[in-house]
Design a protein that fits this description.
The chain is of the alpha/beta class and 235 residues long. The protein is 34% helix and 25% strand. The chain has one domain (5-230): Rossmann fold (3-Layer(aba) Sandwich), CATH 3.40.50. It has a 9-stranded mixed beta sheet, sandwiched between helices. Helix 2 links the parallel strand 3 (50-53) and strand 4 (84-87).
Length: 235
Amino acid sequence: MARPVALFRHFATEGPAYLGDFLTQRHIPWQLIALDEGAAVPLHPDAYAGLVFMGGPMSVNDPLPWIPPVLHLIEQAVRQDIPVLGHCLGSQLMSRALGGAVTRNALKEIGWGGVSVMDTAVARQWFGPVREFDAFHWHGETWSLPPGAALLSSSSACAHQAFALGPHLGLQFHVEMDEPTIQSWCKTGLREIESSPGPAVQSVADILQQMPSRLSPLHAVADTLYAAWVKGLKS
């Protein structure tokens, strides 16, 4: 039996969403590890084909009991070439585990916003022909590039949007979004949006108005990135 992909959830509303659909449609087994419900962090990554870390409103720098074992698990997986994929908080966990730092970004970034892909061979391996696209954002912190990693993309509000290190991929933006997840975040995050005016923060009305036209192209980018990542999965 093939080893499953482990998907780590850190907050109830930040589940696998479109990534779960992607894996299921391709008959790639996956297992949700709900850290927000008290699930234990595995001691070793060997039981899994790959590790995925989703988002969350907390900071990597918070004194949460599950963060040190998660950082250690990421270190082990990278040493063993077990692919790691991080979304937003997940990418910040990856950066921290691999020797980078997580700090406050100059601007909070919430809603739909353009991302530019680097014109490099490594970026093309992950993004294919995509050079620009509209991603979904929701973050106030950013990571530094871990040693040996390649920067793949940036935005006007945040210079570090994606990095790769071998088969490992960290994404500051959210490509995993689907309609129910966006609707949920707009409800639970309304107060944050209203109290965070800025050039890179959209209103709930703007986010929802743009969702029908933005979501399908975002899924196309997600398909490209996820397809490149699953090539490295361990059998």
